[in-house]
Each structure stands twice: as structure tokens, then as C-alpha cells.
Automatic annotation (TrEMBL):
InterPro entries: PMP3
GO cellular component: membrane
Family: Belongs to the UPF0057 (PMP3) family.
Membrane-crossing segments per the record: 7-26, 32-56
Protein name: Hydrophobic protein OSR8
Top-level taxon of origin: Eukaryota
Entry keyword set: Membrane, Transmembrane, Transmembrane helix
One Pfam match: Pmp3
Localization: Membrane
Amino acid sequence: MASRSCTFVEILLAVILPPLGVFLRYGCCSMEFLICLLLTILGYIPGIIYAVYVLVAHGSASEESGRDYDALG
């Protein structure tokens, strides 16, 4: 249940500021973050679309690997 609430917060932040939601999941030097940052600079809507896609589509892959935010709480 905690991973769903973390995903919800990440998506909410991705709608407000797209690179921030991706940064929380992947870090600042990942390819996903850099693509999201570039798309957000070029246009706000493409940045939102990419950020939500990355968080939702790749979210199930990262949950399968066992990575979650329980250690931070």
C-alpha cells in the first residue's frame, strides 16, 4: 500500500513539475530524468506526458525489482 501512495505523490508532483516526479524515482543523472527535463524545457505538456508515462509504465518494473521508499519512512 505504501508503494501506491508513493506512486500517487510522484504522479502528482510530475503534473506540477514533471522532472521532480521523475527525479524522486530515478535520481538526477538517469536518462529518464534528463529526457524529462529536456521535454519540459521544450514544452510543459510533453514533459508531463513523458513523466507520467515513465512513472506508470516503468513503475511496475521497479516494483518488481524490490525498490521502494519504505527505507525513507
